């Protein structure tokens, strides 16, 4: 086996060099023309321009063998044979002459840190089968990379893709469990402030991210430099404090992120914890255009969605949460209904303050206290439905700055009448005048029902309540003609609610 060492090839002027197939290894710094390299001590010409051809059969390339840090590049061209299985640290670092467009990592048994850093010709990186790790800085500053397939990678080294400005999309696989970072990096905006430099720092071209694998998503893991669409997949269990808080005082500013970027974010079922101010959006021109709230979330930190006009959840059921921070949903206009179901004992301070869209509260008799300003400036609240007695309601402590609650109309569900007329499951349609004039006080309709015909329950003079299931999609306008004082019970957002509003019947939502 022939090993090519420094000194075997005399480099004194511009050269064309062919390394034939009998050569199996190229030693460290072989073509590293630098004043600190061994080539200088050999008396070689550090300004020589080299065009190098490597033949199939080569197996090992040593550290810095083709590194080219000179401002006027020395290595004009060099190829990378498919037979190479071992590449040392910084082997092709800053080698603009490397003419390989696609790097398939499964080719290598050993791959050093910063092996291909600063190689602009590389366009595609494929991890491939069996590759579990991408080394530190391996493709940093490779501005030509536009396609990245991470396969089933488990770990990505710090700065692995730093400053890869050509990347526009990132897909992090479910197998990923480690994103390394450097704590010694200084903020791009403040040299006195150190940040965590994750693998994709400086990837300013990214507009689409699908993030999975890592259980806790932290600031800096996703490069935010322009308008983006972001998917957080089900393997992510926690979103850290201030993750998407684009504010001049936030961690995102110190990361050098674009505080004016517009974000559309999809959170998947499986997420459990959302940290403080994770989606807070205090800017006058809003940054978070849309974000959902999965039903799997059980813990929400202080001000997590504060002023987040992009939150698209209309109903908040507080029994979903084991922990709920103060001001968690303050200033979220999309919220229309707040439900404090069985077991909820308190509504935190400022939790829904300035939520201009809230019109209705549904509260359980387990509620003990509504804390300071929980519903401050919620001027549209017109109805509080309380599942208990008036005496029980009067014992609830309502702290200051909750006037929208104290001034609303209170409905006490303790007077609910158990159904005395229940239609059987399987019934799909109630025909015209089918139950006209019956003497029932409370009727429950089956989940199978779709349509209610003309005057189906007309002139039922004793009828006070009817429970209409979500399956009902059509009710004739005169179906309850003459049923004075009738209350419709149904699900929020159902056709029953729409029908009650259109026909001026009282509607009470049920869970």
What does this structure look like?
The protein is mostly beta strands and 511 residues long. Among the domains are: 99 residues, no CATH class; 101 residues; 94 residues, Alpha-Beta Horseshoe (Leucine-rich repeat, LRR (right-handed beta-alpha superhelix)). It has 5 helices and 42 strands. The strands form 11 sheets. A 5-stranded parallel sheet has the order 1-3-5-7-9, with no helix packed on it. The chain is elongated and about 110 Å long. The N and C termini lie far apart (78 Å). The model has no long low-confidence stretch (mean pLDDT 92).
Percent helix among the residues?
A: under 10%
Number of helices: 5
Strand order of the largest sheet: 1-3-5-7-9
- CA-CA gap between termini: 78 Å
Radius of gyration using CA atoms only: 33 Å
Class by helix and strand content? mainly beta
Number of strands: 42
What's the overall geometry? elongated
Mean pLDDT over the residues? 92
- Profile the largest sheet: 5 strands, parallel
- Spans of at least 5 consecutive residues with low confidence: none
Beta-strand portion reads 25-35%
